[in-house]
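hi! just following up on the protien thing from before. the input was this:
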Amino acid sequence: MIPSALEHVQEIAGGTGRAAVFLDYDGTLTPIVSQPEDASLSDSMRQTLRELAARAPVVAILSGRDLDDVRRRVNIDSIVYAGSHGFDIAGPDGLCRQMGTEFLSNLDTAEKELHKALDGISGARVERKRFSIAAHYRNVNENDVPKVEQAVSEVATRDPTLRRINGKKVYELLPDVAWDKGKAALWLLETLGLESRSRGIRPIYIGDDRTDEDAFRALEQRGIGILVSEQSQPTAASYSLKNPAEIERFLRALTATLAE
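and the predicted 3d structure came back as:
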């Protein structure tokens, strides 16, 4: 098991006391729940994020959720939000970027096809976000999961402009462009003028899902990846935290180390 981030806060923060903090939402800031709409941010976690944002050069939430959804759930104006795995970015002072807008009609067609294919599978749920379509199978009978995977794969095969990614109990279709959470984090660092090593900014990325591994790898040479998991597993992250409660403790400790 990689070391606990709680035991290495000073080392993770770096010598300059300046950190750019990137966070996933589900499974990171909130526990994983059976119904995605029930994943609400606690008041104490919101206050922790607000205090961190007052100290850090940037705090960004990179989520698989739709941009408006994750922004409404966190509800802090001073931080950056990236929905649909980084395809839809917005933040203070007019910060905005969208990737794959030319494929929205393809996603519309794929959404209809997925609804038709999955309507007969109990527990399966199709969730349309602006830049992706999620096929949730958390509440599907184990014997029916292969049917969900086959349906998503067939839709992706019919439209080469889309690609499938696998998450926790979800298959998702996204525009097949060279973009992911890692590239979104690097774009934010560059756009906000935080990419120069001479400025002493330490990028820190915290996440629990497979899509977060793209960010761990992207920041591996210059930042810190922290995997949220209670079990040992292959990862490009250097440290771990077990659950949202530990993440809140870590963020509070990190905030205390950052320069005023």
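The first helix runs from residue 9 to 13.
The mean pLDDT is 94.
cheers
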